[in-house]
Amino acid sequence: METKGPLQRLCRVQILKLLVLIISLMVVLIILSQLITFPYKSYTLTIPPVTKGILVHEVAIYNNISVTHKGGLNGSKEEGCKGYDCDHGSLISQIATKQNDSVQTDQTGQTVAVALEPTRFSYMVSVLESTVAARFSKNKLLSARDRELKRARMKIENGPMLGSTEGLHGSLYHNLSRFLRSYKLMENTLKVYIYKEGRKPIFHDPRLRGIYASEGWFMKLMEKNRNFVVRDPRKAHLFYLPFSSLKLRNTSQERTPMSRKDLEQHLKSYTSLIAGKYPFWNRTNGADHFLVACHDWAMKLTKDPMGKCIRSLCNSNLASGFKIGKDTTLPATYIRSADYPDRDLGGNPPSERPIFAFFAGGMHGDLRPILLQHWQDKEPDIKILGSMARDIESKAKYRMYMKSSKYCICARGYEVYSPRIVESIYYECVPVIISDNYVPPFFEVLNWEAFSVFVLEKDVVNLGRILRSIPDKKYLEMQKRVKMVQQHFIWHKKPVKFDLFHMILHSVWNNRVFM
Question: In this structure, what DSSP letter does residue 78 have?
């Protein structure tokens, strides 16, 4: 009996130690499971080169700010970059202008940073991916439509490689098989409800000509569509707000002059109308609604009344509130004929393009005067001009110059976007994009580095040297891909597969699926 007491006490101690060990293991497993489930909880990335922050939907993502960037690229201390091998072919700059603060506050009061330093195209893609991952970490009850989209998302991410590429070339895309799976699911799944509310000319009255024609053509084709549009809003995955930012602006000028606040209030009254009449806006605060707008003011006008919506905007300026992963870029297309939007496409073959680089345009903003100062009449095969006349003959000459040029300079004006980017593609001229904060159209799908060149605004003085450092073989590959990607930027009176109407809708669909 004397030995039994100590033995029992020893057993109890061992059991207690075992229990403590088991509890400790359970705590460790719980912590590990949380880390695995929420890999982006800290919202920190360390992808070079440095960027002090980029405005994305509900997530402030930062790079490694201990790295310095003083004009040179890839660790170079050289002021600027003077050759294509310096990565100008894979860079999109995000240098904020002086009037932009480095920090902004979104609608929820959350502080988010605005990009201040140059960043790679691949970095923008990584931001999109991390934003999607951050959204997926939020648990919520799903509606019937959301469950359909969740199934579509699973098929897009985990579907098999497709045997047929339907004539598309893989080098143009980040992941062609994934894009085709998504596109096919959009065709078979997506349903859109269009609100009937809203008076002309601001609502339901598309303008089909001019540099803002993209919003009009999309409205026209969307309202006539029978494959995607449904009459019963309960069946819809997306809700389209059919207004024209151009008509909103022009109407205010033609009648009593209205301030931006007045125009914002006009849109706010519209959202209040549909929110009071239907339950769908209030259900998500407009997050499953979308708009398509091309006027320069559209981003700021829609920021408050429609800020939660998916916004397809021509003015996709990262430094002014464009949110990767929520907003999409609307290609600006200059359409001269509403009857023949696809007229006069194509250009000379590479061997018959005597102009090495071409630009003509008004001296809008502060970049174009620098371009003109450094490159007008400097080299015989580089044709940099100011504004050309607007008569028919001068417009034909402008198109002839583009069709006869190897590289077409697409320099930003007052805003980051330019219809020259799509014009270059129409005339099979390799676009040279000089616009530091611009997010190119469909960048979540298209590999823009395969068919265009990006040059930092500060390196415009080295433009000739940068372009001449591109090997002829590389140019011929890019020019060939420009011709292949052209189909994605063409308007048709009756939409065809993979055309501009479907690509815009797919970019909205993509953001809705991965919301």
Answer: S
The DSSP secondary structure of 248-309, one letter per residue, reads HHHHHHHSS---HHHHHHHHHHHHHHHHHH-SHHHHHTTTTEEEEE-STTHHHHHHTTTTTS
Give the rounded percent of residues in the chain with a pLDDT score beyond 90. Answer: 68
Q: What is the DSSP letter of 354?
A: -
Tokens at 338, concatenated = 């509403």
- Give the range with max mean pLDDT: 76-80, 134-138, 209-213: 209-213
Which stretch of DSSP H or E encloses residue 311? strand 310-313
User: How many angstroms from the chain centroid is the CA of residue 283?
Assistant: 26
Q: How far is residue 468 from each of residues 247, 357, 407, 425, measured CA to CA in Å?
A: 43, 10, 11, 20
Written as six digits, the tokens of 484 are 């292949």
For 104, list phi and psi in degrees, rounded to 5: -130, 165
Contact 90, 122 (CB under 8 A): yes
Per-residue pLDDT, 77: 33
pLDDT bin (cut points 50, 70, 90) of residue 20 is confident
Encoding tokens for residue 341? Answer: 């939007």
Q: How far apart are CA 384 and CA 372, in angstroms?
A: 6
Residue 159's pLDDT is 87
Q: What is the mean pLDDT of residues 331-357?
A: 96
3-state secondary structure of 482: helix
Predicted TM-score (pTM) of this structure: 0.78
Token pair, residue 22, equals 């088991």
Helix or strand run (H / E) with residue 238: strand 238-240
* Bridge partners, 313 (sequence order): 293, 329
Is the Cβ–Cβ distance between 59 and 135 less than 8 Å? no
Phi–psi pair at 192, nearest 5 degrees: -125, 135
Name, in order, each residue with C-beta under 8 angstroms of 340's C-beta and a sequence gap of 6 or more.
none
List pLDDT tens digits, range 366-389.
999 999 999 999 999 999 999 999
Please say whether the beta carbons of 475 and 453 come within 8 A. Answer: no
In the structure, how many helices (H) and strands (E) does the chain have? 15, 16
Can you say how many angstroms the Cα of residue 315 is from the centroid of all Cα atoms in its chain?
10
Q: Are strands 103-105 and 328-329 parallel, antiparallel or unpaired?
A: unpaired
CA–CA distance, 471 with 475 (Å, rounded to integer): 6
